[in-house]
Amino acid sequence: MEKMRIRKFFNKLIKEEHPRFEKAASEDDLLKEKQIDSSLANTLEIFKKIYYVPNNSDVSIRNIVIGGINKEAAVLTINSISDTKLIEDLVIRPLLINDDESKEIELLLSPQVRKAHEIEDILKEINSGNTTLFVDGEPNAYIINTGNFQGRSVEKAENEVVVKGPKESFNEQAMTNISLIRKRIRDEKLIVESTTISKRAKNELYLLYIKDIANEEILTNIKSKLNSLNVDSIQNLSVLEEYIEDNIYSIFPTILYTERPDRASEFIEDGFIVLIMDNSPDVLILPATFWSFFHNAEDHYLRFLFGNFIRILRLMALFITLFISAIYIAITNYHVEMIPADLLLAISSTREIVPFPPLVEILMLEIAFELIREGGLRVPKPIGPTIGIVGALILGQAAVQANLVSPLVVIIVALGGLSSFAIGDPNLNYTVRLLRFPFLISAGVFGLYGLTALFTFGLFYMTSIKSFGVPYLAPMTPNDSTSKDTIFRKLLKNEIFRPGYLKPKDIEKKAGE
Amino acid sequence: MDHTKGMLGIREFFAIILVTIGTKLTDNTPTGLFNEVGNAAWITIIIMCLVSIIPIYLLTKVITSYENKNLVDIIYHLLGKHIGFFVILLLWLTETYSIVLSSAMYADIIETMYFVRTPILIIYIVLIGVAAYGAKKGIEYIGSAAWITLIGLNIALFVVLILSILQGRINYIFPIFGNGIPEILTEGTTNLSIFGEFLYFGFIVTSLRSINVYKKGIWIGLFYVSIVFMFALIGYVMLFDYVSIGNLNYPFHESIRYIQLGFLTNVESLFLPFWLVASFLRFSFYLYISALLFGALFKIKQFNYLVPSIAILIVFLGLIPEAPVFSLFNLREILVYITAPIFLLLPLVLWIAAKLKGEFKK
């Protein structure tokens, strides 16, 4: 309360008067609510006005006369998002060549034809690439599915690579993505619910869940969050993620983001809810726990021992990335006695010529590493390898030779940096990379004491995070006896329960027995 | 949609018990025992454990006969408004006194053993600050954090114990009864305050998933802690012998300085983080209980908002004693003699009151 008041006070102090803009397109909004009337000329006038027809070059209106019944008609479509050949075959040709006077228009067209008379509905169809046929003397329009958006085909997963297991990944078309999931879950209870989440761009969002497994409470929670959105446009899931997150400022991600249909299906079958949108080569899975970020699709594809082996490796990588440079700082600054004498001499001899304190040295190199990584990511492909060579070889070597950093520090930072790549999830990856810096600083200020203090602080924080009501570290704590897939995976035959923290309607994975 | 509704399960409860009482073997509690009974200190722990069974049994009996009531409600219910208030005030005072003492001691340990050049004020602020953050968050998060770290803490502790027993001398534990059986018996009962915290677990009983969690947790906790404590005391005496150990204020930290782990000759910094995590958790729990009791005294429902103020108070009080190594030791003696009777008598009084009121017949 007090915080809010203070913030309001300061906001008042620094507030500037912004000119208020008149809301545009109010006339259009009024038009949209109307229905079309039976006069073709009138209708066309309205649509030309809405689409600014002569200026809007890919909106085409084609006037025809329907053969047989001799009625005037017009076909309205947006060329760039519809299949012209399909329109020709399904709409225009059958109408033109008809010679039966008694035949109804609906029968002339393809079987998937629908009628609509609200202008708003018709606009939605046209904007989705469908073709609209207006006929003189009829107060409704015929809609024929001809949408054809351009996109890429199903390709290999690029970010979540596995050696053993399926390689398909989602692409930018929601329907393809849903089909990829349906291919894996042939269950009539798999529901694909669609809602419109933005006001102007009318972005469509699909919620996927299994009706008799997913928990209703979580579902209503998510739906109410989605319905409360009031924005003009949400282009894709990456943007949506921020709108529906619980803790926007938190360093820990609370919604899982995956490009693998097999992973998404696995989560759906466990009672999670998946969000799919056009233009997103991935899906959002919620609620997400820490473990879902930590896990990888391959853990379950590899044999039991090997799967757990890579889990251990990943855990080690997590700790190495977080702590190795901080521990180096802590030990060299505060706990020198811990290092065996020979190693200590080796370290001090390499550090002798470096003019900076260890903290500065490590920070410099860590930042350089982050820069190389960010640069390498954004660099256009043809120059990519050059950056790699310059960054890794020349920079590191030259820095050592120029006495800017000691070789040991290069090893430590490189080890930490490499380990961070073992954490596959992009969100958790950023979390870990960012967290390194506070740990570094705390180790620089207080040695192992500061490091531990920050760690405990973070632990308290982590246990208190909730993702859509689910504790972040469940099922490890609060403990849940149903699923034990946390650090290590269990034998598949022993994983007989769905995660209990989701309160699924059907907790057991096996039916009967 | 929280599956557990923020309730502690048996694991979290067990972890809290271990962290709060188990960490005592790392401060100067063992020194007091060694001073009085020599190398038989580990036997006193057995005596203590056995004696503690009575009050804990009575307390559990009283608590389990009520549903959805924690010890505060029960005390008010059984002893009436005024006496209840007085009893809780007494508990709050001893509890807060013990936080001040032990936190000052822990800050002193950190300063004297590891960070000699860092001002104690800063160490103290960090220690209580982190603990206060956890306490402010609530008991379920303290429990969760304790459970997550419990495996690490236990492994670290057992490595220390095994190493000190391996590197110690077996004949240091003889004569097995140290200064004699009478000393063991008297010290065993007067030093009961080591297990005095078991009283506090009654206050969080409404935060547990079920009463069974309390019943099971408290017994498993008591026996586990006693066993660990016993082995720790054996380990210390095997490393240092009983004369010198009486002069060591913080035997655990001296032990981890003394032992070697393969090619690593100085391993104390290796174990420091684990001990620190346990300490942070311990003070989180203490602060939480202190705020809970204060809230119970003055009818403050959202007592977690009290934590920051109590934390600041504790830092200032804890900084008062000069030469903490000596003063804290003596101040702790007073605490020991106050807490032991409370721990022994309060459950008995509650049990008699409950019996008279006929609560057990229901």
UniProtKB/TrEMBL annotation, chain A:
Pfam family, one: GerA
Regions that span the bilayer: 312-333, 406-425, 437-462
One annotated Gene Ontology cellular component of this protein: membrane
Lineage top rank: taxon: Bacteria
One Gene Ontology biological process: spore germination
InterPro entries associated with the record: Spore_Ger, UPF0353/GerABKA_families
Entry keyword set: Membrane, Transmembrane, Transmembrane helix
Stated family: Belongs to the GerABKA family.
Protein name: Spore germination protein KA
Lineage, opening ranks: Bacteria, Bacillati, Bacillota, Bacilli, Bacillales
UniProtKB/TrEMBL annotation, chain B:
Predominant location: membrane
UniProt membrane topology term: Multi-pass membrane protein
Highest taxon listed in the record's lineage: Bacteria
GO cellular component, one term: membrane
Sequence intervals crossing the membrane: 40-59, 71-94, 114-133, 145-166, 192-211, 218-239, 274-298, 305-328, 334-354
Compartment list: Membrane
Keywords: Germination, Membrane, Transmembrane, Transmembrane helix, Transport
InterPro entries for the chain: Spore_GerAB
Keyword set includes Transmembrane helix: yes
BP-aspect Gene Ontology terms: spore germination
Family to which the UniProt record says this protein belongs: Belongs to the amino acid-polyamine-organocation (APC) superfamily. Spore germination protein (SGP) (TC 2.A.3.9) family.
Protein's UniProt name: Spore germination protein (Amino acid permease)
Protein species of origin: Ureibacillus acetophenoni
